[in-house]
From TrEMBL:
Primary localization: plastid
Location of the protein in the cell: Plastid, Chloroplast
Top-rank taxon: Eukaryota
Family according to the record: Belongs to the bacterial ribosomal protein bL33 family.
Organism: Corynocarpus laevigatus
Protein name in the entry: Large ribosomal subunit protein bL33c
PROSITE patterns in UniProt: RIBOSOMAL_L33
Keywords: Chloroplast, Plastid, Ribonucleoprotein, Ribosomal protein
């Protein structure tokens, strides 16, 4: 039988420094990563340090709504 709510959900991580600096989304875009998290272990928004090819450095990528 299928369960109502799965523990694992797919989330999108977006570079916070690109968003904060108001980068033109039409030119090169904003760095985004797709990953999964366990809803029961981490109910809050996920933040990871990932490489941003737009900023050319490691920055904080935060979870966004789909």
């Amino acid at each position: 039988m299928a369960k109502g709510k799965d523990a694992r959900v797919t989330v999108i991580l977006e570079c916070t420094s690109c968003v904060r600096n108001d980068v033109n989304k039409g030119s090169m875009g904003i760095s985004r990563y797709i990953t999964q998290k366990n809803r029961h272990n981490t109910p809050s928004r996920l933040e990871l340090i990932k490489f941003c090819p737009r900023c050319y450095k490691h920055t904080i990528h935060g979870e966004i709504k789909k």
